Amino acid sequence: MCYGVTLNLLIATDIVFRSFCSNSFSSSHSQYEAANFGFKSIANNAQKYGDRSLYNLLAKSSPKESEETKLDFGVDLTQSFSVQKAGNAITECEDIWDCVKRNPMMSIALSDGATESSFAREWAQELVTAFVNRRLPWQEIYTSAANWLLPLQANWPQWLARQNLTWFAKRKAGEGAFATFVSLEIFADMSWKSLAVGDSCLFVVRDSCLLKSFPLQTSHEFNNRPRLIGTNVKTANINISQTHGVAQNTDRFYLATDAIACWIFKQIEANQDPWVKLDEISSLGLFEEWLTKLRDRREIANDDTTLLCLKIQDVTEMHCES
Prior knowledge:
- 29% of the residues lie in helices and 25% in strands.
- By secondary structure, the chain is of the alpha+beta class.
């Protein structure tokens, strides 16, 4: 969608897995708010979920990359910013992402843990890490997401049992952990695929115009009960949406959690151009400064906020720039 054109012109071509049923998990969230406050301090000292970095700013490359077929395009991760909710420490940020680059594929995933559930941050970490590092053929996950989710859900109770929790923390943790999810994978023929659950969004921008947003289409779709992936929920009851397309040189792909995704939609709906401003932000410090101003003016929700941007570039141009 170009600047000045309303979102109503967007025609969604998204495909919803027919093998999954809709479930908003509106009845799955905990009511133990007092317990949640005490639980946070326990969770902060809990056993870490492996030694993986939560914010890996560089895409990991395969050692065999140079041996693969050379492509005439490249995918560059140009922005990777995460800022915690004001008043919280960065260790409390529940926006988690991971990225793996393998010739001829780029795989990136972003998840936003639901604050009211226990160990949401760790669950979000498991979702994105398992997705981008999966060993099964990439096609299988687009025909049956259970191949990705079932092992994670099966292992979760075992991990939870190893945590040293008080009785009220165990009670809350037993209700499950929940998180949103959005992914993007770009392949050698410049085709791409995306999966999503909830209100973390993908924006595809071509020539400074919004080509596609996924899975949401307007700012009015954001609420306090997004669809979520849960540790205790049967995969058949998880509504996973899927979309795809073909990229062109200079296309940009933005992955964003709900706060900044909603801001982007509101900018477009007000006939403003969010892409110009976002492209000006070249460092985490500038992103934090800009985000603080928006929060002070109440133009964006005070929430964990993550923005990732990938750009398709011609290989010859990338070599010249380097």
